[in-house]
């Protein structure tokens, strides 16, 4: 019930050079659980923003009244990575030793915000639901931790896909929950849901 909402939310998008350079933003209005209405869209060209500084942008909504006020910072990506299983970031004994020293009890107060990180190896899925008329699916896997999201590549026409990818996330809140969702890629349409599992960090 507000024409001037304040969200004050922060989202981290991991931007890699092989992805598109445009950040698409949509504003929606929700009447109830079933009815939603698009109030406007705007776009930000990431390549045009100065790096390593916070940019304050007032973005007018296209073809609709109103604007969005946003703070956008383009900074080097630290603590986040996607790699193949054969080049796992924690596979090097020297690196493991450095990490053990970094999170040793005596170094606990050196950087309070540096809680640690989570490494997830996504190996494969088994006996997925068939989402296509051919009796197959085009599955990919999405990992979400807090406001961080990474995803695997799509394995086409397969109910038992193997991804063999390693994902590394920085941990910002030890009470966060890792959500792993499998979707079926459906061309230009929204992906179909194939399954989900939630893992609280405190259970690891």
UniProtKB/TrEMBL annotation:
Taxonomic superkingdom: Eukaryota
GO BP, one annotated term: regulation of neurotransmitter secretion
Pfam families referenced in this protein's UniProt entry, alphabetically: C2
SMART domains the UniProt entry points to: C2
Subcellular location: Membrane
PROSITE patterns: C2 (PS50004)
GO cellular component: synaptic vesicle membrane
Keywords (A to Z) from UniProt: Calcium, Membrane, Metal-binding, Repeat, Transmembrane, Transmembrane helix
Gene Ontology molecular function terms on file: calcium ion binding
Glycoprotein found in the keyword field: no
Signal peptide: none
Residues in C2 domain copies: 1-59, 93-204
Membrane topology category: Multi-pass membrane protein
InterPro entries (alphabetical): C2_dom, C2_domain_sf
Family: Belongs to the MCTP family.
Protein name: MCTP2 protein
């Amino acid at each position: 019930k507000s024409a001037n909402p304040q969200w004050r939310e922060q989202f981290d998008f991991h931007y890699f050079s092989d992805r598109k350079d445009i950040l698409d933003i949509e504003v929606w209005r929700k009447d109830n659980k079933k009815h939603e209405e698009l109030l406007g869209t705007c776009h930000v060209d990431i390549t045009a923003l100065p790096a390593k500084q916070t940019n304050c942008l007032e973005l007018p909504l296209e073809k609709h009244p109103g604007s969005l006020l946003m703070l956008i910072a383009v900074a080097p990506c630290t603590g986040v990575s996607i790699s193949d299983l054969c080049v796992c970031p924690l596979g090097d004994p020297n690196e493991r030793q450095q990490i053990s020293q970094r999170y040793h009890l005596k170094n606990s107060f050196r950087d309070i915000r540096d809680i640690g990180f989570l490494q997830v190896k996504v190996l494969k899925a088994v006996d997925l639901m068939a989402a296509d008329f051919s009796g197959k699916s085009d599955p990919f896997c999405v990992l979400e931790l807090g406001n961080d999201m990474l995803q695997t590549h799509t394995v086409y026409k397969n109910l038992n896909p193997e991804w063999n990818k390693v994902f590394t996330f920085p941990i910002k809140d030890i009470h966060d929950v890792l959500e792993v969702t499998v979707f079926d890629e459906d061309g230009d349409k929204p992906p179909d849901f194939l399954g989900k599992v939630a893992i609280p960090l405190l259970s690891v």
